[in-house]
Structures are given as C-alpha cells and as structure tokens.
C-alpha cells in the first residue's frame, strides 16, 4: 500500500513570495490533515478536511494561508505572501474513517521543508 | 484545553540500556494518547496508542507505554536500546470531542551510544 505522498520535499523562497505544497493521501482515506512543524517543536494542526469539507481550520492563519481538497482526494496548501516565521516542515497526514474517529491512526507523509529567506 | 509536556528535549542512553521517555498530559475529559517516532527526513510513524481498556500498551519495535490516570502520565519504555532507536519521539493527546485533532508535545530526541 502506498503511503502519503508530498511534494516538493524542499523549497527555498524569499519572503513575500508565494509557495504551494501538494499532498496525495493514502487511497480511500477520508480525512486529511496539514500540520506545521517548526524546528524544535511538535507538529501543530493547521487544517483538517473530512472528504472535501473543512472540519477544523482554527489555527490556520487565513490572511496568508489557504488550503483546498478537490474531489476529496489530493490537497494543496498555499502561503501567500510568505514570512520568515513560516520556515518549517509542513506535514500532511491522512486517516481512514470519514467521521475523523478520534482513535484513528494518522499516517504521515515525509513533509515539505520550507525555508523563507 | 489539552496539552502535552515531554520532560527532556534530549535523552542519551547506551546500547542495551533501558529507554525511558517521559510524557505528561493535561485533559479535562478522558484522553486518548499516542507515541509517534520520527526518523531524520521522514514523516511520523505511530509506535503505539492508548484508547480504552488495558493501561499497558505494547507497540512496535519492542516499545511499550503505561497510561497512569492518577499521575496524568504516559511514559514510553523499551528494555534494551538499539542503535536503530535513535530518532525523535513525540507524545500526543486527543479526545472524543476533538474530532481526531492531535495535540503534540515538543518532542524528545533519543541518542543511543555504542
């Protein structure tokens, strides 16, 4: 079974530029998560999708971050414009059950490491 | 609000020694607890989880953890460390009213000396 795929793996941009990350979850997984992991910290949830609807985006900085999950499968996370403090690893995860069952295992992709100069 | 505290950002043990990584949580409702491992340049992988039932949970690679409600703890142990155990370990908590949202601790980096 293929795991969660993410691209690109690394990205370096200047501040105020735009950037987009892509995630392909495990086939059949209904719930998709985007996490931000700043160096030295644990991952922090940015947004959670259930199929193609948003369940939780309370910690997403909506003035600069946006995300979508077309057709309930792939997802993209965009930052526009980027700030220095956005430098982090952006992790995508998926879980099976459409209810976002709280005990579901979340399967993580390898992440995209973003450096903002 | 839920939170997780991992005591010690870096733990170093000798190969063959006991591994003990500490995790304390705060939750006003019954918690569900997880340990994840992250190898360099890789995503997180689930080691084990506690939901309900038996408080001693066994996971992959010989790790286990015990849920102690009275101590609000969920410490991770392994009797004998291997070099391949060197990685970053994260404790996380969620609950029935969080819709699957995980709250992570800041992580503990485990080093294993030959």
Task: Provide structural commentary.
- The complex is a heterodimer of chains A (117) and B (114).
- Chain A is mostly beta strands and 117 residues long.
- Chain A has no helices and eleven strands.
- Chain B is built from no helices and eleven strands.
- Chain B is globular, with a radius of gyration of 14 Å.
- The model of chain B has no long low-confidence stretch (mean pLDDT 94).
- The interface between A and B is medium-sized, with 28 and 26 residues.
Short description:
The complex is a heterodimer of chains A (117) and B (114). By secondary structure, chain A is mainly beta.
What characteristics describe this protein?
heterodimer; A: about 120 residues; seven-stranded mixed sheet; about 0% helix; B: about 110 residues; six-stranded mixed sheet; five-stranded antiparallel sheet
> What is the multimeric organization of the chains shown?
heterodimer
The H-and-E topology of chain A, N to C, reads as: EEEEEEEEEEE
Give the fraction of residues assigned to helices of chain B. under 10%
**Terminal residue distance of chain A:** 37 Å
The CA-CA distance between the termini of chain B, in Å, is 41 Å
The helix count of chain A comes to 0
Secondary structure class of chain B reads mainly beta
User: What ranges of chain B have pLDDT less than 50 throughout 5 or more consecutive residues?
Assistant: none
What would you report as the Rg of chain B, rounded to the nearest angstrom?
Answer: 14 Å
- Sheet with the most strands, sense and barrel status of chain B: 6 strands, mixed
| Mean pLDDT over the full residue set of chain B | 94
**Which chain pair has the greatest contact?**
A-B, 28 and 26 residues
How much of the polypeptide of chain B forms β-strand, as a percent range? over 45%
Beta content of chain A comes to: over 45%
Question: Rg of chain A from C-alpha positions?
Answer: 13 Å
The unreliable regions of chain A are none
